[in-house]
């Protein structure tokens, strides 16, 4: 493995971790009210495109990073939908 591959893997790991603190916080407070559904959907869709690209060219760092972000953004979308229903006040 050369220095460029190592940097690519390090970048993939760091990129993969970007959503982890938000997922943990959202899970702890059981609220996704402050998260933008538009942003989450854009991130989710972009990871699908990046995964297609990564698999087409077999770019492991791209596949690793976007697989993790795909799962984390899907988790946040799930939280956004389910926590909204659970926390809704019935009048």
Ordered list of secondary-structure elements with their pairings:
Blueprint: H1 3-16, H2 20-29, H3 37-57, H4 60-86
Helix pairs in contact: 1-4, 2-4, 3-4
Membrane topology: Multi-pass membrane protein
Subcellular location: Membrane
Keywords: Membrane, Transmembrane, Transmembrane helix
Polypeptide structure, described:
The protein has a single domain (3-86), classed as Monooxygenase (Up-down Bundle). 79% of the residues lie in helices and 0% in strands. The chain contains 4 helices and no strands. Helix 1 (3-16) packs parallel to helix 4 (60-86) and helix 3 (37-57) packs antiparallel against helix 4 (60-86). The longest helix is centred in the last third of the chain and has 27 residues, at 60-86. The chain is elongated. The N and C termini lie far apart (61 Å). The relative contact order is 0.19.
Query: Rg from C-alpha positions?
Result: 16 Å
The number of distinct helices, counting runs of at least 4 residues, comes to: 4
CATH architecture: Up-down Bundle
Overall number of structural domains:
1
Overall 3D shape: elongated
Strand fraction equals: under 5%
Instruction: Using the coordinates above, name the CATH class.
Output: Mainly Alpha
Question: What is the helix content?
Answer: over 70%
What's the SSE pattern?
A: HHHH
Largest sheet properties: none
Query: What is the CATH fold-level name?
Result: Monooxygenase
Counting DSSP E segments of at least 2 residues, the number of strands comes to 0
